[in-house]
Predict the 3D structure of the following.
Amino acid sequence: MVRNLGTSIRLLVIFMVLIAGVYSLLVTGLAQLLFPAQANGSLIYRHGQVIGARMIGQSFTGARWFDSRPSAASYNAAASVASNYGPTNPALIKEVKTNLAAFLKENPGVKASQVPPSMVESSDSGLDPNITPAAAYLQAPRVARVNHMSLAAVRHIVAEHERGRFLGLYGSPHVNVLAMNLSLLAWLNRHHA
Amino acid sequence: MTVTGVLGILVFAAVLIAIAKPVGLYLYAVYDQRRTFLDPVMRPVERGIYRLAGVREEKEMSWLEYFLAILAFNLVGFIVLYGFLRIQGALPLNPAHFKDVGPHLSFNTAVSFMTNTNWQAYGGESTMSYLSQTMLMVQQFLSPISGLAMILAFIRGLTRRNAHSLGNFWVDLTRTVLWVSLPVSFVGAMVLVALGSPQNWGPYVTAHTLQGARQSIAQGPVGMMNAIMQFGDNGGGFFNMNAGHPYEAPTIASLMVQLILGFSIPVGLTYYFGKVVKDTRQGWTILGAMMAMFLAGALVMYHAEALGNPLLAHLGIHGANMEGKEVRFGPALSSLFETSTTAVSWGSTAAANDSLMPIGGLITLFNMMSGEVIIGAWGVGLLGMLAFAILAVFLAGLMVGRTPEYLGKKIQAYEVKMATLAMIVPTFVILGLSAWAVTSKGGLAGIYNPGPHGLSEVLYAFSSGVGNNGSAFGGLDAAAPFYTWTVGLAMLFGRFAMYIPALAIAGSLVQKQSVPESAGTFPTHGTLFGGLLIATVVIVGALVFFPALALGPLAEHFALWSGHVFGGGA
C-alpha cells in the first residue's frame, strides 16, 4: 500500500502538470488566438462601455422594451439559480398568477390563453437570453405604441432575430431579447434622433 | 408532443448507435492492439511518465492489487483536492476573492469529484476560485478513469483463462489520459469555445445594461472544464446552473455537442466489450437493451413535459411545462438531456429537475435507482449491466435447471452472491439514508417543496449520490451539514461497494477454465436475452423502490391531475 501511495502521488503530480498546466494553457492560448470574442465572454460594447453579453439575459421592465422571461436569479449573472418550484407547490401557482397578471396589464388586448408558458414561468439558469417568437409578437403592439413606431417596423425587428431549431430537429425557435432591444434602439436613433 | 420532437429523439438514438463501433474500435486499439495514429506523439510521453513515476509497464496485478492501486490513487486525489479547497483564499487565480471553502463543503466536494459524482452543494461562480475550478477539473479527468479501469479489468477477467492477473492500473490510467481524455477534451473545448463558451481568467465583468442597471457577469475558463465535464460523464459545471447556463451551452448546437461527448465512451465501451470477447453480438445486445430503456424514458418524460401543468390550465396557461427550462432548448431537447443526464450518469443539467412534472421526475429517479446501468458512466454503467447479465443467466439457468454460463465461464454461487451484493448495498444505502432524512430534524429542515415532492427531493439526493450521478432536485438544501455528510457517505458507498464485488467476480472468473459452447448453452445475445436483461433490470430496480416511488412522484402525479396542491399559500 505504501508503494501504491508513492506511485499515486508521483502520477498525480505529473497529471496535474499535464492537465492544470499544459492543457489549460494550450486551450486558453488557442481560444484567445482563434476565438477572442467568445473566449472573453461575447461582451457587447456601446460607446466604449460594456452593456451586456450576447447570450446572457438581462432584465427589461420598461414598457418601451421587449420583456425578458421571469428569472429566479433576478438576472444576476454572478449567481445563476432556478426557482426549483415543484409542479404542486402553491408558490408556483402564485408566481404564474402574478407574472400573468403583470403581462396582461402591460399588453392590453392579449388574452391569457395566448401567453406562452415560458413568458410566465421562470427559466432554468435565471439568465435565459431568449423568449419564443410568439411571446415577442404578443409584445409588438405595445412596443410600437410606446415608441411611436409602426407595428410593421417592430414585427420586422422580431422577424430579423428569429432563430430556428438546430438541424430543423433540436431545440425550440427563439429570439434574443437583448439583440431585439438593441435593434429597437438603433431604429429609434435612426428615425427619431 | 410534436413529430419534430419525437423524430429528434429517434435520430439522436440512431447517431449513438452509429458512433458505438468507431469509438469501440479506437478503445480496442488503445488498450489491446496498442497501435493508434497518436502513438508517435504519445508513446514517448507515456514512457517518460512511467520512468518519472517508477511504474513498471509490464507488471500485471491481481484483482486485489488492482483494487488497492485504484484506492490509493483515489485517496491521494481526495486529500490534495480537499487541501486546495480549504486554503483557496490564500492561493492565486482568485479574482472574485472567494474565501476558503468550509470543512463540510470541502469534504463533500472532494468526495464528490473523486468518485466521479460531481454532486455540487455549492454554486461555482459564487464559491470557487479559478484555481479551485481547475483542480476540480483535474479530478474530472482522472476520476472517470477509475470506472473505466474497472471495466477493463472485468472484461479481462471474462476473457482470460486460467490466469491470475487483470492488467496494470497505472498503465490503464496513463494510456486513458494520453490517448482518450486529453485529445478529445482539447478538441471538445475548442469547439465549445467557438460556439460561445468563455475561456479566460479575468475578473467578473460589470455591465451597464440598456435599462441603466448594473449586471455583474461571471467569467472564467469555462470551455476547458465544460469539455471534460461532459466527456468524462462528470457533470460538475463551472456555473451553478450548469449546462442550462447560457455560458455553458449558449446555443442548441453547443448542447448537442455536449450530449454526444457524454455518450461517446459509454456506448463505445459496449462495442469494445463485444470486440474483446470476440463476439460483437454480445456488445450489441447489451447496447440494444440499454437503448430500449433509454428511449422509453426519454419519450415518456417528453410526453409528460409537453403535456404541461394542469393546475396552470385554470389560469389560462396551456402548453409545455417551461418552469425551470430554457427557451432555446424547449421541452423535447430538455427532456432528452435530463433523461440522458440520469441514464448516462453525468449529472449536469440543462433544466431544473426539481421543476419537472412528477412523471418526468419519476423517469430521472428510475434511471438512477436501476443502478445507473441504462448506458451509465465510464465503465461503471457497463459493469453494472454485466452484473445484471450474470443475474439474468442465473435466473434463466434456474428456469431450465442447468448450471448457468456467461461467455464460456461457469457462473457459480460466488459470482451470483457478489452480483447480488453489488445490487443490495446501493439499495440499502438509498432507502436507509432517505428514511433517516425524513425522520430527523436535520433531514426535514433541508426539504424545499411541500408534500410528496419533498420526499422525491430526498430520494433523488441519495439516488444521485449512490449512483455517482451528481444531478439534484435543486431545491434541497444540499449545503446543510446533514446532507453534505450523508450524501458524502452515499457517494463513497456507491463507488466502492460496486468496485469490490465487481473486481471479486473478475478475480474469480479469470481463474476459471472456459467451457465450450454446446446445444444446451443459453445464448446471451439476441432479442430473447436482451428482453430478459431488461426484465431483470426493471424487476430488481422497480420492485425494490416501488413503495418509495409510490409515495413520492406517483402520489404527486395523481394529486396533480385531481387538482391538489400541497401546503398553504396559494
Notes: Chain A has a mean pLDDT of 96. The longest helix of chain A spans residues 2-34. DSSP finds six helices and five strands in chain A. Strands of chain A lie at 43-46, 49-53, 130-131, 162-163, 174-176.
